[in-house]
């Protein structure tokens, strides 16, 4: 935990000091010292605004989104006892993508909205996708396998609606695909404040459920004999993980592989107990996405890569490695 916190502080510090604007990290340090001591800043008013209203909010948002996706991935893997489960398993990504596409097509301008319609639609779509999957899974008899199959069916259905809407409005395809590749473009602290309550509540619930996930790992019958109700635990964990995923997707678009890469790295380094995996995944996810976003916004500066490209470049080979390592245990 101490190592993870040090890594988080280091990632936040480096990403705040270094950016595409070329302010110079020593001058940014001078600005931070001036803010803390009341001294004179080496930055102009405009440059200081870049640090505090653009760069630092983006770093915080990257940390929140990464933490939400990673802790949700760890929770899904614990609930389904499947090492390849990730936050988009139950239709959250498909629901968010469909809703965002419909907003782009029907309301391309956000003028007059108190809160931007795209994040709200993505949030509602992600929760709606998970809810529809859950209803279908329960109506078909429940069970992990049925729920996973329901998620695949719901994702296919929602993706078909999204594709149909895109084909009717081809002039919006670029905007839609830009959102689907993931990004953390911020307008100050608005996006941070929008997602912070949901991610905070979800993270607290999932961290408190770490011991229960350890018990579920030994089987439902054994868990029931210890006085735990597996069904209720699963519902609680799924709701919390889906809420965190929906909040992250609403402001960042679709950023894949975070929920697979981070929990597995944590298991390799710190063991498989969910009392350890869940909180460390929370911190590790924040570190991972802050670093990925730093690469995305600086490697081809002044242009910017979609952050989903960076995470996919890292996560796809890791996913294949995990699949090979667990080929006898994945069902």
In terms of topology, how is this protein built?
Blueprint: H1 2-17, H2 25-37, H3 45-80, H4 92-106, H5 117-139, H6 144-168, H7 173-180, H8 190-208, H9 210-216, H10 220-225, H11 230-252, H12 258-270, H13 274-298, H14 307-325
Account of the protein in words:
The protein is mostly helical and 331 residues long. It has a single domain (2-325), classed as ABC transporter involved in vitamin B12 uptake, BtuC. It contains 14 helices and no strands. It has helices at residues 2-17, 25-37, 45-80, 92-106, 117-139, 144-168, 173-180, 190-208, 210-216, 220-225, 230-252, 258-270, 274-298, 307-325. Helix 1 (2-17) runs antiparallel to helix 3 and helix 4 runs parallel beside helix 6 (144-168). The chain starts with a helix and ends in a 6-residue tail after the last helix. The model has no long low-confidence stretch (mean pLDDT 83). Belongs to the binding-protein-dependent transport system permease family. FecCD subfamily. Pfam families: FecCD (PF01032). Keywords: Cell membrane, Membrane, Transmembrane, Transmembrane helix, Transport. It is a multi-pass membrane protein. The chain crosses the membrane at residues 54-76, 88-107, 113-137, 144-165, 235-262, 274-292, 304-323.
Q: How does the overall form come out from the CA principal axes?
A: globular
- CATH names the topology as ABC transporter involved in vitamin B12 uptake, BtuC
Any idea what the radius of gyration is?
20 Å
Helix-residue proportion: over 70%
Identify the CATH class: Mainly Alpha
Number of domains: 1
How many DSSP E strands? 0
**Terminal-residue CA separation:** 32 Å
Output mean pLDDT.
83
Outline the biggest β-sheet: none
Structural class: mainly alpha
CATH architectural group: Orthogonal Bundle
Report the sheet-strand fraction: under 5%
Number of helices: 14
Q: Report the CATH superfamily.
A: ABC transporter involved in vitamin B12 uptake, BtuC
Order of helices and strands: HHHHHHHHHHHHHH
Flag low-confidence runs: none
